[in-house]
Design goal:
Length: 325
């Protein structure tokens, strides 16, 4: 596959996105966490997107994209595929604009996220064992029914929307050495890279992915050529894709300082650590940034570090398993 011709969002697009979504989302807190400062021997801050509306950063992108669509597109309705948080964002935005929304999810998807989507009026269809099966089916339905298809990553307005949390970070804190971001499809890391490039060029953005679903990492590591597919065995549904996509990978190859893989065990431990130190809930994907930081603690010593807690939508059963393990 050739690289996507879609335009990269600019910093102006990010400021425009903030104006578009300001009345629909929260400005989330950026907090210094003494327990993490001590354990990592660094100046550690957490961007609490786990306290965002719907419990995840994705709502920023969904609102920005849907707010920019035409009346004709809204009349046709929206269809997308999601492991959960992206679907919530499109369902919420569609509801705000009175549009229909259908979300395809893998069989057995996170029931908290599925219930949230349905409560906002979305039609949720379970299809296939993994996200990529649901994605293919959503594309078929979009073509057959003429709905506006929303890809989870190949959408400039999604990236511009989620980049607004990074805009808030740089407005709230100076002299940031590292921003560490969980990577599913890559929109959050792309947004952080774009904003940091314009507002704080010395800030290094590091992506983190589970070694049980490393497709984006493997595509980034090649630095050129087609993206690659890989195994998908992670419990972190926010990271649960076996495919990577040209559009976000192209930006990550250009702008990302480094990319880390962490184990499922380390992600689980990071959930417990974040609950203990921040007194907030964080889902598997949202804890991946801390797991990544712990894997390079020597590099971070004495530095100012921002960890992205990207979501809070962990189920009671998941939480019980994490604590028991």
């Amino acid at each position: 596959m050739s690289l996507s011709p879609l335009p990269e969002p600019t910093i102006s697009d990010v400021y425009d996105a903030r104006r578009a979504i300001a009345s629909h989302v929260h400005r989330t807190p950026l907090r210094r966490v003494p327990g993490l400062c001590e354990s990592l021997d660094a100046d550690v801050w957490v961007k609490h997107e786990n306290l965002q509306l719907l419990g995840a950063f994705k709502v920023r992108g969904g609102m920005n994209l849907v707010s920019r669509t035409s009346e004709e597109e809204r009349a046709r309705g929206f269809v997308t595929a999601s492991s959960g948080n992206h679907g919530q964002s499109i369902a919420y935005a569609a509801q705000q604009f009175g549009a229909k929304c259908t979300v395809f999810v893998p069989v057995g998807a996170n029931p908290v996220k599925v219930a949230s989507m349905r409560s906002m009026g979305a039609t949720v269809v379970e299809h296939g064992p993994i996200f990529d099966d649901a994605r293919v089916q959503s594309e078929i339905v979009a073509r057959e029914e003429g709905m506006r298809y929303v890809h989870a990553a190949n959408e400039p307005m999604l990236v511009a929307g989620v980049a607004t949390y990074s805009l808030e970070i740089h407005e709230d804190l100076d002299d940031i050495d590292y921003i560490i971001v969980p990577v599913g499809a890559g929109s959050g890391a792309c947004g952080a890279s774009i904003v940091s490039r314009y507002l704080s060029p010395n800030t290094k953005v590091i992506g983190v992915q589970s070694d049980a679903a490393p497709s984006v990492y493997l595509s980034w590591k090649k630095m050129e050529g087609p993206t690659v597919d890989a195994k998908m065995e992670t419990a972190a549904e926010g990271l649960a894709t076996g495919s990577s996509y040209d559009y976000p990978v192209g930006m990550l190859r250009k702008y990302l300082h480094d990319f880390l893989l962490v184990s499922e065990d380390n992600i689980q431990q990071a959930i417990v650590t974040l609950i203990a130190t921040t007194r907030t809930l964080v889902e598997h994907a949202g804890a991946t940034s801390l797991a990544g930081a712990e894997s390079i603690r020597d590099q971070l010593q004495g530095k100012r570090v921002v960890l992205i807690a990207s979501g809070a939508n962990i189920t009671i059963d998941q939480l019980k398993t994490v604590i028991a393990d």
